[in-house]
Design the sequence.
């Protein structure tokens, strides 16, 4: 993953955290406002009850039930004082020591009523709409106080999980980068190993005193090819991380060059279990003139990796790898099909992940490199089209036509 992708994920995590925090705060605040409105209505109703009682002493049974069984069941602090703040006539849900002397208790409650009045204006109780009898002070219930704390707790928990997620993402990223570096080192060794092994073989042939002039010329030609291959490998690695130059190339001819080199240096008879032999053939189906803008060195690297992947997947006595090249609308399509063992459905989502491999001798970078080269440097697509266990796999490279 590049730095820009990593930065985008971090920003996405931050934005998600902020949105979650805002959502929690807004939702909780909405609930608090509704409860406050309900408590204000109950306080108003309580004040009206006192006022009604003061104005009509003939209290009916129904009104007595409402006053004693409903209004007085309020769950928030409430203090009713006289208009001059000298006497407390009623209080409820107040955390105060009721065993205090009457004067001391009255003083404490009046002080509390004054504090309540700073946050919420007291409700006035009048006699015949002219004489102020009482002031009803009320505060917030325990439920509101707990709801105020709830967003903080939720934010702390949410922040904790975001931090854990960020740490986990950083760990995965570092592990992935480590896998890439290890894989890249092994890929370098493997890339160099093929031409070097070939050169050693040609050297042994040259040392033989029985070779003919015609054979000597052929060996020299192959040595030149291997030296050219080494130059290409150096060129490939130098292009990683930079913007490669794309040129109009004949796709069929490029693939043909790679397959020819590949076939001559990897034995067509490969031991599968120490005794059974398998033979692999490579077929290219394409019109002669299909061109696309590619970087030759990097594109050949992709084809090599796809070939190696297919060869490793073939566990039958006879294997076949087919390249089908064709145009589809404005795209150039290259399907690479083999009759190998296929990919189990539970592994398909991981095949392009760095470091993933089902092969004992694999390092899990071939498909990752191929995908990056096609998608990042050529703006194309490399996808798994189909894979059937024990029947084979088809990968597709999609390039833009000139």
Sequence:
């Amino acid at each position: 993953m590049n730095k820009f992708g990593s930065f985008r994920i971090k920003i996405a995590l931050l934005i998600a955290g902020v949105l979650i925090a805002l959502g929690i705060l807004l939702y909780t605040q909405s609930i608090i406002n509704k409860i406050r409105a309900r408590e204000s209505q109950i306080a108003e109703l309580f004040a009206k009850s006192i006022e009604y009682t003061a104005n009509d002493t003939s209290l009916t049974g129904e009104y007595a039930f409402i006053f004693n069984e409903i209004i007085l069941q309020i769950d928030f602090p409430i203090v009713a004082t006289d208009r001059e703040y000298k006497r407390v006539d009623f209080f409820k849900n107040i955390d105060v020591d009721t065993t205090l002397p009457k004067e001391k208790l009255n003083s404490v409650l009046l002080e509390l009523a004054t504090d309540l009045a700073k946050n919420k204006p007291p409700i006035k109780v009048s006699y015949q709409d002219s004489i102020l009898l009482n002031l009803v002070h009320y505060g917030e219930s325990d439920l509101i106080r707990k709801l105020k704390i709830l967003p903080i707790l939720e934010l702390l928990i949410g922040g904790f999980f975001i931090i854990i997620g960020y740490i986990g993402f950083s760990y995965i990223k570092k592990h992935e980068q480590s896998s890439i570096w290890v894989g890249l080192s092994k890929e370098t060794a493997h890339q160099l190993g093929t031409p070097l092994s070939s050169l050693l073989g040609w050297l042994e042939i040259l040392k033989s005193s029985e070779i003919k002039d015609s054979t000597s010329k052929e060996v020299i030609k192959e040595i030149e090819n291997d030296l050219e291959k080494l130059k290409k490998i150096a060129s490939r690695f130098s292009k990683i991380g930079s913007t490669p130059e794309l040129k109009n190339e004949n796709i069929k001819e490029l693939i043909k060059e790679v397959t020819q080199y590949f076939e001559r240096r990897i034995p067509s008879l490969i031991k599968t279990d120490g005794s059974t032999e398998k033979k692999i053939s490579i077929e290219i189906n394409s019109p002669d003139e299909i061109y696309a803008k590619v970087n030759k060195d990097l594109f050949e690297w992709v084809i090599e990796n796809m070939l190696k992947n297919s060869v490793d997947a073939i566990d039958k006595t006879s294997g076949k790898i087919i390249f089908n090249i064709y145009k589809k609308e404005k795209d150039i399509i290259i399907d690479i099909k083999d009759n190998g063992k296929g990919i189990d459905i539970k592994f398909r989502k991981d095949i392009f992940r760095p470091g993933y491999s089902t092969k004992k001798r694999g390092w899990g970078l071939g498909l990752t490199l191929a995908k990056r080269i096609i998608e990042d440097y050529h703006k194309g697509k490399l996808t798994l089209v189909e894979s059937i266990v024990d029947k084979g796999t088809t990968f597709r490279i999609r390039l833009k036509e000139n």
About this structure: Residues 3-140 form one domain. The helical segments are 3-55, 61-70, 102-119, 142-207, 213-239, 251-265, 296-313, 366-377. Confidence is low (pLDDT under 50) at residues 268-275.
